[in-house]
């Protein structure tokens, strides 16, 4: 397997990693065990990755961060919402 | 702020993002709300990022993935362990 293909698989896995957590949290409607800091740091971090991608004109870098930004943004909202209604 | 500095901040935030979750899970000894898939996909994904970094001789890429690999590997273990003892 050449380096580019390994990079593509790596990027795909890290991009989709938060999807199962969003699905699980929506199903259980419970997020007490989740630290708000992980989705928050990831949301801010991937936003800066996108800014960096825009500044250096790197389209794959911009595209790869759309899914994690959406997922981690949603997770921050779900964490705050479910903690509040289950408090 | 130049693109390189934005990239460094982005990389630092996404690298350290899983640390608070490891600390929280160790403190609460409870991981029911966490999907095993997120740390598992991230652990495999960042391992492949490191392999990619090694193949293209990119030291920052290798170094940036050490912390997430350690954290997400630990989280997989904690998730399995605490789910088993609290079952």
Task: Explain what this protein looks like in three dimensions.
Two copies of one chain form a homodimer. Chain A has helices at 3-16, 19-28, 37-55, 59-64, 66-85. Chain A is mostly helical and 87 residues long. In chain A, helix 2 packs parallel to helix 5 (66-85) and helix 3 (37-55) runs antiparallel to helix 5 (66-85). The longest helix of chain A has 20 residues, at 66-85. The termini of chain A are far apart. The model of chain A has no long low-confidence stretch (mean pLDDT 96). Chain A binds chain B through residues 3, 6-7, 9-14, 16-18, 20-21, 23-25, 28, 30-35, 37-38, 41-42, 44-46, 48-49, 51-52, 55-56, and chain B through 3, 6-7, 9-14, 16-18, 20-21, 23-25, 28, 30-35, 37-38, 41-42, 44-46, 48-49, 51-52, 55-56.
Strand content of chain A: under 5%
Largest interface: A-B, 37 and 37 residues
Task: Name the helicity range of chain A.
Answer: over 70%
Characterize the biggest β-sheet of chain A. none
Main features:
mainly alpha, 87 residues, elongated, homodimer
Précis, in short:
The structure is a homodimer of 87-residue chains. By secondary structure, chain A is mainly α.
How is the topology of this model organized?
The structure is a homodimer of 87-residue chains.
Chain A: H1 3-16, H2 19-28, H3 37-55, H4 59-64, H5 66-85
Helix pairs in contact in A: 2-5, 3-5
